[in-house]
Automatic annotation (TrEMBL):
This is Amidase family protein. Residues 26-453 form the Amidase domain. It holds the Pfam family Amidase. It comes from the Bacteria. SUPFAM superfamilies: Amidase signature (AS) enzymes. The lineage of its organism: Bacteria, Bacillati, Actinomycetota, Actinomycetes, Micrococcales. Gene3D superfamilies: Amidase signature (AS) domain.
Amino acid sequence: MMNELVYTDAVKLASLLHSGEVSAVEVLEAHLEQIDTVNPLVNAVVTLDEEGARAAAVEADRKRQAGEPLCPLHGLPISFKDTASTAGMRTTFGHPRTQDFVPAVNDLHVQRILDAGAIRLGKTNVPEHAAGSHTFNRVFGVTRNPYDLSKSAGGSSGGAAAALASGFQPIADGSDMGGSLRNPASFCNVVGLRPTPGMVPNTDGANVFFPLAVNGPMGRTAADTALLFSVMSGQAADDPFSSFPAEASGLGGEPKLEDLAGLRIAFAPTLGGRVPVEREVLDVIEAQAAALSAAGAVVELACPDLDGSEEAFRTLRAAAMDAAWGDDLAADPELFNHFLAWNIREGARLTGRDVYRAEETMTRLIRGAAEFFTRYDLVIAPASQVVPFDADLEYPTEIEGHRLETYLDWMRAPYLFTPLGLPALSVPAGFTPAGLPVGLQMIGARGSDARLLHLASSFEKLSLCSTIRPQGVAVL
């Protein structure tokens, strides 16, 4: 029989832990039992430190019993994405050559989460070097969708999303360049926030000026995601672009349906005709657009200017990959999987002029988005162009008769918004007739992360999909 603690919302669970109604040891053991039962089927958690977690839980309970001040995430268990460095625990990046790598220090967001009282459990699975939105690699294999074990959990934060949906942990960290928080959240019926760049400092990579990749929070609800965001966000001295987010510590009052009334919403089901979208996805998001309209929002077909976004994103992504791994690939052509190797080689063909012009395009897109959000409060769009696909595929090769040439093509719905520098999240929106989750992408003005989370929480009261758990897998 499943322990109800494993599906208790993080906000409520934190309150229970602070009050002493449950102990950190009780919470940890419930989640460890769930992992032991379900993870062999899902393969979301790929490294586990039960002994270390138990010691940390005992210490957390000692602090509460001693009356010491408790932090916001006191006693909440978490496994970190396997691209985030965790001191003393292996971080493989999903690649054979680093499968035994053990970092000496934590990445900043990992340290902030631990300093806030979370209990480190282990690591969650990723694609090779987080490239692609389907989680499989040569070290640990494929992560499967807890709603249907034959399907993909998405990626690159697929292990994190599947762990949340399976009841392995109440919060999760992730990262997002082209949809790596939003896509798996859509596939696994959870919330994934890609923050405004700078909200979560970029101090862990080699280049603080790289504009595309960000770390961000995930949760089963928007409120849980906001709780983790409040810990991850905030200025850092070694990131010149980092900032103190306004009201990041909460949702700004109790979310309610009335918050949706009067909102000016731009509905972009195909991003202005730029992307093909599966009919089953459109059925869900069109129904939710109608529901938002019925709740009093002003919903119009509209989309920010995305002209040039494709080229800018692909140029900057490929340039970063070549800078990181071009020499390694040249030394060993078999080192990386075939589509990652292709992307690295694409970067090798670029010139400095190409990169500079991509940054100019980003500048134009950011300025255009700023003007767009003087007329609209919110954009809604698909978080993924497809429903969860067969886990044995590398990536989809066709959408509604449109042939897809590369592993990136099916991910345009999230990544075309990336160069605009906006906060974007996926929130549970519905299910296909076969019971597969579909997420709604919500995009707000630059810096409006806290308000976006608040609106997502209000939307949850309209859709009610966040409460629907996997049947038959996570309840074993």
